[in-house]
Amino acid sequence: SLWGDIPFSEAGNPDISDPIFDSQIAVYASAISLLDEGISILNAANSGSIPEDIYFSGDKANWIAAANTLKARFYLHQKDYPSAFTAAQNGISSASGDMMYKPGNAASGDNNLFWTILEGSRSGDIGNSVDGVESYLIQMLDSGNALSRNNAKTDETARKAYYTINSSTGSSNSGIIEENEPQNMVTYFENQLILAESAARNGSLADGLPYLNNVRAWMNTGGHINSNFQDQSYSYLAYDAADFDNGGIENTDGIDSKSAFLREVIEERYVSGFGMHIPYNDSRRLRKSDSSIAVPYVLVNGPQSGPWPERMPYATTELNSNSNAPAEDPGIFTKTRVNQ
Questions:
Q1: DSSP three-state, residue 186
Q2: What b-and-e string marks burial along 141-177, b requiring 16 or more CB atoms within 10 Å of the CB?
Q3: 0.90 exceeded by pTM
Q4: Model pLDDT for residues 114-164, shown as the tens digit of each residue
Q5: How far is C-alpha 179 from the geometric centre of its chain's CA atoms?
């Protein structure tokens, strides 16, 4: 999703030194096809413990579920909401099936990536406040801030503390970038929020609401924070459809209740997806025709009116060494094919 067209069909072939750049659309189709192939192989395979499997220890059901959630993610990137819903129905069905990078399994140097950055030579480079001004995310979690997403059914006190980063050193942190804190890759909450958004888009608010409430029920057990913050207050009570009526949650401007619900789902993706690519991917996916439900952070509603960063630049080594690479990088403001 980050670069657009990339080498894929010929990449990794030792007999091809200059792989062609496949279109982003073709790469998505090929990736989904590979996932389908993997699912088929796993369905026919025997189950058994595999100590070398650092994610699921050989549990094929977990791998199949994660593959389906990845399919749902890729369909969502392409705005194919019916296919996203279908894939997610077979995706990760509980947080115990999350695919995560879990530090601490190697002799040394196996730590949370962001902890490593701050604990090394990059002190001060990663954080969520600058000169006393907190990031949009932290402001949203602050009950005393005008941007707060706290409401009668939502208390974000613990999550705010868990997400707050001390950028001076890695060892100063006990929350989301604590030394051995797992990092999300493919998760239950993402799968449920794909179901929530896709079901509502394909049908009604009532169709999507149970899936959002599944995420809230999980968070209401404290599953979204670590043990260092369990003693702080948090609450995620189930929403009702009426909560999104005019004047209600995400509806201060009198939009229809389904759009307000979709705003809440996208906002939960933004908050829960902290540390993942979800916020960036959503800002680009929604820009063309759904900007009214996007989270208005800096990549959506920044100090300038655009253009906005739409892609990552190709590595200079690829441009210089691959004769099939573009003559020059398209630039970070060029939209990738799925977002045009």
A1: strand
A2: bbeeeeeebbbeebbbbbbbbbbbbbbeebeebbbbb
A3: yes
A4: 999 999 888 888 889 888 899 999 999 999 999 999 999 999 999 999 999
A5: 21
